[in-house]
Amino acid sequence: xxxxxxxxxxxxxxxxxxxxxxxxxxxxxxxxxxxxxxxxxxxxxxxxxxxxxxxxxxxxxxxxxxxxxxxxxxxxxxxxxxxxxxxxxxxxxxxxxxxxxxxxxxxxxxxxxxxxxxxxxxxxxxxxxxxxxxxxxxxxxxxxxxxxxxxxxxxxxxxxxxxxxxxxxxxxxxxxxxxxxxxxxxxxxxxxxxxxxxxxxxxxxxxxxxxxxxxxxxxxxxxxxxxxxxxxxxxxxxxxxxxxxxxxxxxxxxxxxxxxxxxxxxxxxxxxxxxxxxxxxxxxxxxxxxxxxxxxxxxxxxxxxxxxxxxxxxxxxxxxxxxxxxxxxxxxxxxxxxxxxxxxxxxxxxxxxxxxxxxxxxxxxxxxxxxxxxxxxxxxxxxxxxxxxxxxxxxxxxxxxxxxxxxxxxxxxxxxxxxxxxxxxxxxxxxxxxxxxxxxxxxxxxxxxxxxxxxxxxxxxxxxxxxxxxxxxxxxxxxxxxxxxxxxxxxxxxxxxxxxxxxxxxxxxxxxxxxxxxxxxxxxxxxxxxxxxxxxxxxxxxxxxxxxxxxxxxxxxxxxxxxxxxxxxxxxxxxxxxxxxxxxxxxxxxxxxxxxxxxxxxxxxxxxxxxxxxxxxxxxxxxxxxxxxxxxxxxxxxxxxxxxxxxxxxxxxxxxxxxxxxx
Length: 663
Description:
Blueprint: E1 38-39, E2 44-51, E3 66-70, E4 73-75, E5 77-84, E6 100-101, E7 110-116, H1 126-138, E8 144-150, E9 155-159, H2 162-171, H3 187-195, H4 198-209, H5 212-216, H6 222-263, E10 270-275, H7 285-298, E11 300-307, H8 323-340, E12 342-348, H9 352-362, E13 365-371, E14 382-389, E15 395-397, E16 401-403, E17 410-411, H10 412-421, E18 431-439, E19 446-454, E20 464-471, E21 477-483, E22 497-505, E23 508-518, E24 523-532, E25 535-537, E26 540-542, E27 546-548, E28 550-552, E29 559-561, E30 567-568, E31 572-581, E32 590-598, E33 604-610, E34 621-629, E35 636-646, E36 649-660
Parallel strand pairs: 7-8, 7-10, 10-11, 11-12, 30-36
Antiparallel strand pairs: 1-17, 2-13, 2-15, 3-4, 3-14, 5-13, 6-18, 8-9, 14-16, 18-19, 19-22, 20-21, 20-23, 23-24, 25-26, 26-31, 27-31, 28-29, 31-34, 32-33, 32-35, 35-36
Helix pairs in contact: 1-2, 1-9, 3-6, 4-6, 6-7
């Protein structure tokens, strides 16, 4: 037997709903004002990998086992936490789709695979890329993976869509140009030519062209002239090869520097896996020093995987004579990258899976150390940092330097901007968010209602700032919003504080990022995919359905309070959506019925017809608002559905999931 159902007309509850087709225009974000409070950082965090002989993380250390020095002076370690990122014993519950939260998230890693394509010959490393794809396949579902190529090519920003990264790796290939190969000159010899090493110059030219004095015997001009031409060719080829090696290095260093800048300055540890066959940093040590500062600022660790070309490499017409010296100078730069990045270099000789398995093992856990900085550390300059552990037969991976600005001077706007750029979410302030897309009545744009709730401190004097950014698929910003201060509720309460914001945007898919920070420095952020579209239903375009179990105001002036989590504890479900038609006559045969169905069920447990009524002067828009009783429904998951029909034929529906919770 169905519970008693009440149905409201569009004038009831819809007149003052947050979004309606009668509105004069969309809310526009206010001009950002100077932040009214600052946040501070009292502890510097350092992520450290402690690895045993078998490349497994050591997991039983505490703060007393570590020593941290800055510029040779010891610092007090206040915390040491081991962060395990191994697979959970049971699969986590799938996240809700009707809202997004930063609570209960597993400890996912940030791993960027960077392929230095300019150093790798075509075809030669296809097995390495296939192994990298298998490495990504083994990562935890919560890990965010990025794929970048240098100097150009595939770019996938941090994502949990591992399949996309795997597919791109299978398509990846090197693009190194072997350069001039008329003479057998290696990169090590080319660098010596550049330095003016007369011994190397004479040895190489004699080897490639013969001895000049011998060439002049028995010939008036031909032999000697050919030798001179050959020597000029050797000199030119050496100069070209050295210039090409430096160009590759600049491309690699610039690419890494840009990537580190993209990662931001958040304290979430990031791992960069650089796949490269070589890097000549001779003459670019200043750039390497700048890279070290960028690594420290980004809280990143760099691991290098170096495929070793075969001595019988067919990609070169003539094999250089000094292969060992070439390998040494190419590896020297990669070793420096691993040292700067606090990681390690793995050589791939025959089995690339072995190298990636070792890397996977090392990344399965790390320590997050916190130490108290001294006043002299807060000068904004780079300071050398050293981490040691009181344990034998272990290897330590940690950053080599850090920089820290003055305490208590960071604005809320700066913190919000950093949170919105960060590829991970902050969880110190529990945060939930949902969106509702509506048509703007005066333009083709979408009015996106962003509804959120934050479990802030129950303190009337506490302050909180909030920021939102909508990012288009190509990375451009579609809209942004900053509110410097959200006042605490007038009455002290433990209930989450709600906030509603409307953004006017172009139709399309977006990634929404939102962040909050309070005056104690606690931070929270979420990321949510948004599809800002109207749904086509025959001659109509429908907005999303807004639901809630509470209203504000009385009578015809009452407004629905949108639900954020979909958890309804009230006695009634209120539902609202809008239909638009190019020709108002299409509404003449239209009807709407509102249903409630159990999740996964096919038959309504509650239903009622709803009238389509204009709420303003625009004849192209109609609004439907219905209220259905929840009094006799058992706690559990349900779906609210509005079915639109035209002339007795269903043309479409809008739905919204919700849950009945204990009253």
